[in-house]
Write a structure and sequence with these properties.
Blueprint (H helix, E strand, L loop, with lengths): L1 H34 L9 H16 L3 E8 L4 E7 L12 E2 L4 H9 L3 E3 L18 E9 L2 E10 L7 H38 L4 H6 L10 E14 L2 H7 L2 H21 L3 E5 L3 E6 L8 H25 L7 E16 L4 E6 L1 H11 L6 E4 H8 L8 E9 L2 E10 L4
């Protein structure tokens, strides 16, 4: 009886020791994975993943490990990192939809799936990789949502035991921290890119407000009624010929620094710089009944500010400058053109051509507006805007007659 008890306790002690050693090994692996995050920049997130896979491989000796995360744009799983397994021929990147293949099924169910022999699994597709052996696919879960999977593969069928699967799930939990940090970092990068893009066109406050407005962050356009302003420095060609390039650039920078804040202060959108001029639009992203009035008030303030700038330039022993301004109202196609990576927001349509034409016939210090712009502005202007007709204006590409007005009061 005593011998049986002694044998039992010995076996029990061996089991406890093995379990203890197993726990120590698991904690050591998880600790090293956690430590690998310290001192590494998220800007090198691919390197972080690869480093963690290398740690897992060193601790487990598993032949191949890969991480797949969900691409939220395409709603597909793609490989973000894989442990090095020697030379392999170049193949097209693997992408799986939720529910497709082993990884897709695990992603959809958020449950670990163990395949002892992939060559006998009908749902396994090696995509030309000629894989064999055992595969354990484990979900990566963050805040209750499956965001990816981690694949553990060995070359021999039946390689993994229940203890291995438990370790894989612990590893996947640790990788979820890394994946969440990386996704947050990439989200912040995308947000900052949107912020910088919007800040090119709008005041800081409005840019922040528009960050979540998908109309401003996707390719394509919408029909809108807007008021367009063209501001141009009069006689700029002669300035270029009369002053060194450095001085001309300095004058331009001071001019833009003077005009752009005025546009923003009147809720306008800076469409683009035009060498020695500026194009602005009122009515983006949403129309306001006072857009035409805001445009004329903006133009009036620009003329006042430019007079102050001219005095400052003269004190710097540079040339005084004057600007002519043209304003037109009408329907345009407004939206982003370019690519997903590099897009520019702009407006296209008759009012753009007309505003540019009105600016071209303006004299230094003048504001020339279309009849429609003036009519819409007068409905909200108090006191009424003083103006004088300058007759019919011909514009290339516009067949109808255009009546133009000269604003003669500073509102």
């Amino acid at each position: 009886m005593e011998e049986k008890l002694e044998t039992f306790f010995k076996k029990r002690m061996v089991s406890l020791e093995q379990g203890y050693e197993q726990k120590i090994a698991e904690l050591s692996l998880l600790k090293e994975m956690g430590e690998s995050l310290k001192g590494m920049s998220l800007s090198h997130w691919e390197e972080i993943f690869f480093r963690q896979l290398d740690i897992i491989k060193q601790h487990t000796g598993i032949y191949s490990i890969s991480i797949m995360l969900l691409d939220r744009k395409t709603r597909s799983l793609y490989v973000v990192s894989a442990s090095h397994i020697g030379y392999s021929p170049q193949r097209a990147p693997i992408r799986l939809n939720p529910g497709e293949g082993i990884a897709g099924r695990v992603f959809e169910t958020a449950k670990t799936l163990y395949i002892p022999d992939v060559t006998k699994e009908s749902g396994f597709s090696d995509r030309g990789t000629d894989q064999k052996g055992a595969l354990a696919c484990v979900p990566i879960v963050s805040e209750g949502n499956c965001i990816g999977v981690v694949n553990f593969r060995d070359n021999f069928p039946g390689s993994f035991e229940p203890n291995d699967l438990r370790i894989f799930e612990l590893v996947a939990d640790q990788l979820s921290i890394t994946a969440s940090l990386v996704r947050t970092y990439l989200d912040l990068l995308a947000l900052e890119k949107k912020r910088m893009n919007l800040s090119r066109y709008f005041s800081r406050g409005l840019a922040e407000h528009l960050l979540a407005d998908e109309r401003m962050n996707r390719l394509g356009g919408q029909q809108k009624t807007v008021t367009v302003i063209f501001v141009d420095i009069a006689g700029f060609s002669s300035l270029v010929e009369s002053y060194p390039v450095e001085d001309v650039v300095g004058m331009l920078n001071q001019f833009f620094a003077t005009v752009v804040p005025v546009i923003f202060n009147h809720d306008g959108m800076l469409d683009k710089f035009l060498g020695d001029g500026v194009m602005a639009v009122f009515g983006i992203p949403d129309a306001d009944v006072k857009d035409s009035l805001k445009a004329i008030e903006c133009a009036s303030e620009i003329q006042k500010k430019v007079k102050g700038l001219s005095k400052s330039l003269e004190k710097q022993e540079l040339a005084a400058i004057d600007v002519g301004i043209g304003i037109a109202t009408g329907d345009v196609l407004a939206g982003n053109i370019g690519t997903e990576e590099q897009m520019n927001y702009t407006v296209i349509g008759e009012p753009v051509n007309l505003a540019q034409r009105l600016e071209s016939i303006s004299s230094p210090g003048e504001i020339i507006v279309s009849q429609l712009t003036l009519e819409r502005a007068q409905a909200y202007a108090k006191p009424q805007i003083q103006f004088e007709p300058i007759g019919i204006v011909k514009v290339k590409g516009i067949q109808r007659k255009i009546s133009a007005m000269r604003v003669i009061s500073q509102i």
